[in-house]
Amino acid sequence: MPKRKGITVSRQIMDSQHRHPEATGELTGLLNDLIVAAKIINSEVNMAGLAGILGQSGQINVQGEQVQKLDDFANLTIKRRMEQCGYVCIMASEEDDGVIPVLDSYAGKYTVAFDPLDGSSNIDVNVSIGTIFSIHRRKSEGTQGQIADLLQTGREQVAAGYIIYGSSTMLVYTVGEGVQGFTLDPSVGEFFLSHPDIKIPPKAKYYSINEAYSRYWHDNTRAYVEHLKDLDERGECSYSLRYIGSLVADFHRNLIKGGVFVYPRDRKSGKGKLRLLYEAAPLALLVEQAGGRAIDDEGRNILDLEPTELHQRVPLIIGSKEEVDLAEQYFKS
Ligand code: AHM
Ligand code: MG
């Protein structure tokens, strides 16, 4: 008897489509194609540990092919999958300077912005990395999508999520009806529902910030982090520090266990490091759907920020509600 595996991600997406009689199935199709891209990337990420045997990036492998860098591979895989799926009119990737157009004959009604492989400095050392995606409905008429279709607020996203390639591979996404988490069973190549209706603990256990930059911090960041380090009424530390340096991994841990992640602006980086369209906005929608919050370092909700350029950076404070509320007191201008 085969083991009962439960709900697959395609089934879950189809179920949510059925709850909306007006839905045409295009978002379902788009998400399913993205998931195929994620599975292809996952299989390549899993091979990365064999690089020493199969050839390092930039080298020629045993088949006589040039070995691609993993982030380039992930970028190309998503672009190829999306450009002919028929559901997308224009794309943007953290790895490409400009917009990525789609042929007229394939243009659909959605836009996709993505970070193909976030945390790529961790690839060589077997630390979790991830793909982040953000989907909007186009606003323009006609076949070709316009840059304005991509420059919409996070609040206007119709779906957002990430795939984390870690000790197991997970897909976490929202279509605005809560957050669902799926784990890939590699033996059948399917994502199965493992974390239904994820809620972030309202109180954090962890804080995540690159403390090495504390010399560059502005006073509000310093005061906030000092507050987090204060002893509680029992004379004990209230939090532990966790910082992987891979946003998806830091976010995922904080989402499940409770935590706050902070990447502020400082005296070195004008506006922080993280990108509004590919990183901050999709994770902000997820965290809000899970009961948490995301703000910038002036206390503005990330989901309400109007993007003006594709690669716009934004200071980010994201995670459990209590600690983001506290941050708001320190950061609100
Ligand atoms: P990347 O998109 O070039 O991979 O950079 C983004 C990464 C995030 O995953 C992570 O949170 C951050 O950079 C870490 O930056 P830092 O090393 O400055 O702390
Ligand atoms: Mg990134």
From TrEMBL:
<dbReference type="GO" id="GO:0030388">
    <property type="term" value="P:fructose 1,6-bisphosphate metabolic process"/>
</dbReference>
<dbReference type="Pfam" id="PF00316">
    <property type="entry name" value="FBPase"/>
</dbReference>
<feature type="binding site">
    <location>
        <begin position="118"/>
        <end position="121"/>
    </location>
    <ligand>
        <name>substrate</name>
    </ligand>
</feature>
<dbReference type="GO" id="GO:0006002">
    <property type="term" value="P:fructose 6-phosphate metabolic process"/>
</dbReference>
<comment type="subunit">
    <text>Homotetramer.</text>
</comment>
<feature type="binding site">
    <location>
        <position position="115"/>
    </location>
    <ligand>
        <name>Mg(2+) 1</name>
    </ligand>
</feature>
<feature type="region of interest" description="Disordered">
    <location>
        <begin position="1"/>
        <end position="21"/>
    </location>
</feature>
<dbReference type="InterPro" id="IPR028343">
    <property type="entry name" value="FBPtase"/>
</dbReference>
<dbReference type="GO" id="GO:0006000">
    <property type="term" value="P:fructose metabolic process"/>
</dbReference>
<dbReference type="InterPro" id="IPR020548">
    <property type="entry name" value="Fructose_bisphosphatase_AS"/>
</dbReference>
<dbReference type="InterPro" id="IPR033391">
    <property type="entry name" value="FBPase_N"/>
</dbReference>
<dbReference type="InterPro" id="IPR044015">
    <property type="entry name" value="FBPase_C_dom"/>
</dbReference>
<dbReference type="GO" id="GO:0000287">
    <property type="term" value="F:magnesium ion binding"/>
</dbReference>
<feature type="binding site">
    <location>
        <position position="210"/>
    </location>
    <ligand>
        <name>substrate</name>
    </ligand>
</feature>
<dbReference type="GO" id="GO:0042132">
    <property type="term" value="F:fructose 1,6-bisphosphate 1-phosphatase activity"/>
</dbReference>
<feature type="domain" description="Fructose-1-6-bisphosphatase class 1 C-terminal">
    <location>
        <begin position="200"/>
        <end position="331"/>
    </location>
</feature>
<feature type="domain" description="Fructose-1-6-bisphosphatase class I N-terminal">
    <location>
        <begin position="7"/>
        <end position="196"/>
    </location>
</feature>
<feature type="binding site">
    <location>
        <position position="279"/>
    </location>
    <ligand>
        <name>Mg(2+) 2</name>
    </ligand>
</feature>
<keyword id="KW-0479">Metal-binding</keyword>
<dbReference type="InterPro" id="IPR000146">
    <property type="entry name" value="FBPase_class-1"/>
</dbReference>
<feature type="binding site">
    <location>
        <position position="273"/>
    </location>
    <ligand>
        <name>substrate</name>
    </ligand>
</feature>
<feature type="binding site">
    <location>
        <position position="94"/>
    </location>
    <ligand>
        <name>Mg(2+) 1</name>
    </ligand>
</feature>
<comment type="similarity">
    <text>Belongs to the FBPase class 1 family.</text>
</comment>
<comment type="pathway">
    <text>Carbohydrate biosynthesis; Calvin cycle.</text>
</comment>
<dbReference type="GO" id="GO:0006094">
    <property type="term" value="P:gluconeogenesis"/>
</dbReference>
<protein>
    <recommendedName>
        <fullName>Fructose-1,6-bisphosphatase class 1</fullName>
        <ecNumber>3.1.3.11</ecNumber>
    </recommendedName>
</protein>
<keyword id="KW-0963">Cytoplasm</keyword>
<dbReference type="Pfam" id="PF18913">
    <property type="entry name" value="FBPase_C"/>
</dbReference>
<keyword id="KW-0460">Magnesium</keyword>
<feature type="binding site">
    <location>
        <position position="118"/>
    </location>
    <ligand>
        <name>Mg(2+) 2</name>
    </ligand>
</feature>
<keyword id="KW-0378">Hydrolase</keyword>
<dbReference type="GO" id="GO:0005829">
    <property type="term" value="C:cytosol"/>
</dbReference>
<feature type="binding site">
    <location>
        <position position="115"/>
    </location>
    <ligand>
        <name>Mg(2+) 2</name>
    </ligand>
</feature>
<feature type="binding site">
    <location>
        <position position="243"/>
    </location>
    <ligand>
        <name>substrate</name>
    </ligand>
</feature>
<keyword id="KW-0119">Carbohydrate metabolism</keyword>
<dbReference type="GO" id="GO:0005986">
    <property type="term" value="P:sucrose biosynthetic process"/>
</dbReference>
<feature type="binding site">
    <location>
        <position position="117"/>
    </location>
    <ligand>
        <name>Mg(2+) 1</name>
    </ligand>
</feature>
